[in-house]
Amino acid sequence: MEQNVRGATSTYVPGEFVHRADPADIIPTGWTQLAENRFSVSARWPAAHPFFSPVAGDRHDPVLVAETIRQTTMLVAHAEFGVPVEDQFVMWGLHYTADAEALAVSGLSSDVTVDVVCSDLDSRRGSLRNLRTTMVLTRDGRHLATGGTLSRCTSALAYRRIRGERMAALGRPVPLITGVAPHLVGRERTKDVVLAPGTRPGQWQLRVNTAHPTLFRRPNDHVPGMLLLEAARQAATLTLGSAAYVPTVMDVSFSRYVELDSPCWIEAEILPGPAADAATVRVTGHQDGQPVFLCTLTSPSRDLAVAAAGLDSRLAG
Question: Which intervals hold domain A-factor biosynthesis hotdog (predicted)?
């Protein structure tokens, strides 16, 4: 592959640069360096995808924004900052705010442009270790979303040392527990359900399907962050009682790895929204008595806000 320099464009994105093996799952299509730590990344959202399918009838799945941000961050880290593809890439935080109308499927192309600014770069012995990204996504010249990440890169050797005996879980099948009904979480296929009934109302157990082609893109020794994002979205959908939940705002932080051999418990609660016509849900994950992630999601739907208020009244009663 040609050496990428300022002003030059690469039109080929290797799957290892975005940690995806299936070409259908690779969202970035190329990148251009605009300045020292600023890049323009071209991307294409899949017109049809078995997992990232339209929601609420006519909207692109907003979690595609999160996946675009995730893949773009890794692409820049590997292609421009020299992070070896065998290094472990951990995102401690990811956030986005999307325009609900701009997510419309019809009338717009699938081509997305991502303007990326990298900051808080921390290198040790010539290797990038910490990175913050800030992004603006546009589509057909129209503002689509903003977002960013806080990430850490760990060498393969250091990662094996950190994880120790946990590395034995790499590629090991996990017993697949029975999930909730797909329609309750806005899904059509049972294999896309990532929540199982919990021990009390408002609680669910994380359902881990290591054979899922999108959420487990390769053998892993812990639960991938994108699976936890989907768990948060499904928990919010269940909490509000509407399969049309469209989280146009999401902010997630991860505090530790979620292990494969211990139950992870998901809980959700409705929060006062930033506007009267919004529905906001806070989702938390705990494992072995310790918090593992926190995610806040907001949908701009007035109908969902009304549904949320009704649900609050029923819970209070």
Answer: 17-153, 184-295
